[in-house]
Amino acid sequence: MALQAGDSLTTNNFGIQIDGVMVEYLQEVSSLSVEQDVIESKQVTSSGKHIIAKLPGAQKSGECTVTRGATQATEFSEWIKKSVEGDITGARKNATIVMMDAQQSPVKRYHMRNAWCSKVEISALKAGDAAALTEQITITFEELVIE
Questions:
Q1: How far is 115 from 108, CA to CA, in rounded Å?
Q2: Which residue, 5, 29, 36, 147, shows the most beta carbons closer than 10 Å to its own?
Q3: What DSSP element (H or E) covers 79?
Q4: CA 139, CA 146: separation in Å to the nearest integer?
Q5: Do residues 106 and 17 make contact, with C-beta atoms less than 8 angstroms apart?
Q6: What's this model's pTM, rounded to 2 decimal places?
Q7: For residues 134 and 123, is the Cβ–Cβ distance under 8 A?
């Protein structure tokens, strides 16, 4: 059943695309954020009244953290590897977090331009533990476009 006007998305159905290709379904996306400068303009009218206006300035770069099961998904792993090895030219990709409805149809996208992996952290390794191994990857990007 398709979403109706006013329906909220669930938070459990999403993945990541790199250069337009779906490469991984993720366990978690957190701290997806971007900030914009605020320009304050102060003027005085001809009658002496002070006017303050706030205007949008330049968008700052942003970042997010994704958690995935430690798998052998080659495209995503190669992207991480290029970043970690310092191949920033090869690592800069356009990445998109894609939100999907219950029928796996994309309904919202967060496009991250010139994204690369700035941090990789694996979950704790414990002898005898039956938990799945996960990786947390911090993705840094230059611009966010919401569609």
A1: 18
A2: 29
A3: helix 74-84
A4: 16
A5: no
A6: 0.81
A7: yes
